[in-house]
Write a structure and sequence with these properties.
4% of the residues lie in helices and 34% in strands. The protein is mainly beta.
């Protein structure tokens, strides 16, 4: 899991969960059911995916990873238009207007981490990162982390 991934955590149980996201690689129309996303997404078949809170969210039915620079996510029903560079995210609900962040992030993963049960992670609660070097994050996730600044500089 790459550094900069939006994370939720529970201090009492000492468990953390990522907000699975994907950066759109190429524009997709309003009736699209296939979305090209940059390689490295944590999304998996069966996850509900959305492009905006309160919008459409539907399950990923297939992932084609044969592209050199991108994967193709297929959903059974369109989640609407998506522009290159925008973030898709895992939703906790499915439906035409049910999209909601699967977890509410409280911080960002400090360093690249191998995904495994019981792995120790560091989470940044306050800081600045270069947005271009970080995994895609939807606007709603950025709003949930007011002490994290997504810098647009180099």
């Amino acid at each position: 899991m790459p550094a900069g991934t939006p994370m939720d955590y529970d201090e009492s149980t000492r468990k953390a969960k990522p907000l699975k996201t994907a950066e759109v690689y190429e524009n997709a129309g309003g009736s699209a059911t296939q979305y090209k996303v940059k390689k490295g997404s944590l999304l998996a078949v069966g996850d509900y995916v959305a492009s905006a809170e309160g919008g459409a969210a539907y399950a990923i039915t297939a992932i084609d990873a044969t592209g050199a620079d991108y994967d193709v996510l297929t959903v059974g029903t369109t989640i609407g238009a998506a522009t290159a560079g925008a973030a898709l995210f895992q939703s906790s609900a499915t439906g035409a207007s049910a999209a909601a962040l699967a977890v509410t992030p409280k911080g960002l993963l400090y360093q690249d981490t191998m995904v495994e049960t019981g792995a120790d992670v560091g989470i940044v609660l306050r800081g600045t990162l270069y947005a271009r070097r970080a995994p895609a994050a939807p606007a709603e996730a950025k709003t949930a982390m007011p002490l994290i600044i997504y810098s647009q500089s180099f």
